[in-house]
Specification:
The chain has ten helices and 18 strands. It is α+β, with helices and mostly antiparallel strands. The strands form five sheets. It has a six-stranded mixed beta sheet with strand order 4-3-2-1-5-6, with helices on both faces. Strands 7, 8, 9, 10 and 18 form a five-stranded mixed beta sheet that branches. A three-stranded antiparallel beta sheet has the order 13-16-17. The structure holds zinc ion (2 copies). The site of one zinc ion (ZN) has 5 residues, from loops.
Length: 363
């Protein structure tokens, strides 16, 4: 089973780095390690991994379901009326002393406080780098899962583009994408960002009640979770006749997107892919308007390593999945971003995003 192998590999990294105990909440990390997470809420739920033992502290109401999914993993359940501390102490008593603790950066802060009280480690560090060494390399099954999620995002993008017309709000366009995702079986819609006209100049605009109007450039950036794996795509719609100033920016961003995608292959660094996109936009005179990194890894989370950015000398390897999303932003006027999801193959890069790159023009 893939998840048993993942736990063993994590334990090997822990031994290498002198980490006695790694603790995970019900996050993407736990899902990766167990192929399952109980429902996350305020109740303490911790997967405790020692170099040669694993156990889990779980709220009793989720214990049976967790047992059914975790194949013999030792579970220590606690009831609401008792609180989690006794169960947590009991779990730690069964493990070697946790002098050096690695913690899940995405788990709740109060879980960490409980853990520190019960285990009093001498040292604590983020578990993220060890998990990144595992999670960055997608198996064939993971690549297929991400590819299916990308196909679903293509369909949701079509629904959103179809919904764009004068008089409709950003939120209504966002809902069209959300509905398409859910009807196709997404278990969660992660974000539906619709930024019209001047709102497009905010890279992370929150879709609101602005009415679309003739002359609007509309950035649509959407993503969802399909069987755990995330999608992320950005395309643009224009209402009416796009002015040449806009088209120039669009063509430059598209060229940056294409060139950066063409640069993807094993052996190049994340920095180099970013550089290709940045140089293209610099040559077109847009250097100062490209205000973010070129991309981010994608998998069980929307943002995860590898980070495709200047200064990251990490070498890209087969199985890595990440976005290529150059963009330019003109305050008060408009923005342009075009985003695809690439997977590094044996000899190059494969684009999981299938949606056409041409501007969608609606007159
Ligand atoms: Zn995106
Ligand atoms: Zn993205």
């Amino acid at each position: 089973m893939e998840s048993e192998d993942r736990l063993k590999r994590l334990q090997a990294y822990m031994a290498e780095e002198g980490v006695d105990l790694a603790a995970f909440g019900p996050t993407a990390n736990m899902r990766y390690l167990l192929d399952f997470t109980p429902h996350p809420d305020e109740r303490l739920c911790l997967l405790l991994v020692a170099q040669e033992a694993v156990c889990m502290v779980v709220p009793s109401l989720n214990a049976e379901q967790t047992a059914a999914h975790t194949h013999g993993l030792e579970l220590i359940a606690w009831k609401d009326a008792d609180g989690p501390m006794q169960a947590l102490r009991q779990a730690l008593d069964g493990l070697p002393e946790a002098r050096c603790l690695a913690v899940d950066g995405a788990m709740r802060a109060d879980f960490l406080l409980h853990l520190q009280e019960a285990a009093s480690p001498q040292e604590a560090q983020p578990a993220g780098p060890m998990l990144a060494r595992l999670r960055q390399y997608k198996s064939a099954a993971e690549v297929e899962a991400a590819a299916r999620a990308a196909v679903q995002a293509d369909q949701a993008m079509q629904a959103a583009a179809d919904a764009c017309q004068p008089g409709v709000t950003e939120a209504q366009v966002a809902w069209a994408a959300e509905e398409a995702f859910r009807l196709d079986g997404a278990e969660e819609v992660c974000f539906t960002l619709v930024a019209s006209g001047p709102n497009g100049a905010y890279p992370h605009h929150h879709s609101g009640d602005r009415l679309l109007q003739d002359g609007d450039a509309i950035i649509i950036d959407i993503g969802a979770s399909l069987r755990g794996y995330k999608s992320d795509i950005t395309r643009m719609v224009f209402l009416g006749r796009p002015p040449s100033e806009f088209m120039q920016a669009y063509e430059a961003v598209l060229e940056a997107n294409k060139r950066a995608r063409a640069a993807v292959r094993p052996g190049v660094t994340a920095h180099q892919v970013d550089r290709v996109a940045r140089q293209t936009l610099e040559a077109a005179g847009y250097a100062e308007y490209f205000v973010h990194r070129t991309g981010h890894g994608l998998g069980l989370e929307v943002h995860e390593p590898p980070w495709i950015m200047a200064g990251n000398e990490q070498v890209l390897e087969e199985g890595m999945i990440f976005s290529v999303e150059p963009g330019v932003y003109f305050p008060g006027r408009f923005g342009v971003r075009i985003e695809d999801i690439m997977v590094v193959t044996e000899s190059g890069g494969r684009n999981l995003t299938g949606f056409d790159h041409q501007l969608v023009i609606k007159r």
